[in-house]
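## retry 2 of 3
previous attempt timed out at serialization; input unchanged, resubmitting
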Amino acid sequence: MVFFRSQQSKQKKRAPACVQKGTMVYAVGDIHGRLDLLKEIQEKIKKDADNHKNASKVIVYLGDYIDRGLHSKEVIEHLSKKPLHGFESIYLKGNHEIAMQLFLDSPKETGSWLLWGGDATLQSYNISLRDEKGKKYDLEQLADALKKAIPENH
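## retry succeeded, writing output
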């Protein structure tokens, strides 16, 4: 049984991807609302980059900035300020950001995002899952509240 068949044999062979000489590339992924760990890894990257003063520096953020950890909003805010001076920054969207966007567009169909850690993201934007009487908000109410809470630069 074949689960995956490479299409490469039918296509022209491509040269392997490479990084231009004199360029340092760092990749950071799966931050998941942990601003403390993001700052820690950024400090380590800065220290390493100091050993390569003449190199061009690129940092690729691989997505999954949100969910699970309690500081999703703060992570996005921190990254929006391009915190590593002298680095080209590339931001990719991860499956958690895609899930949040789907939730915002169709909350009833994609409410399972809350089980992936989306509840923590809502809380980081100061959105309560329950009203003052303890009753759960419905998914559309939560999506509407999140739409209103997310700043334009996020």
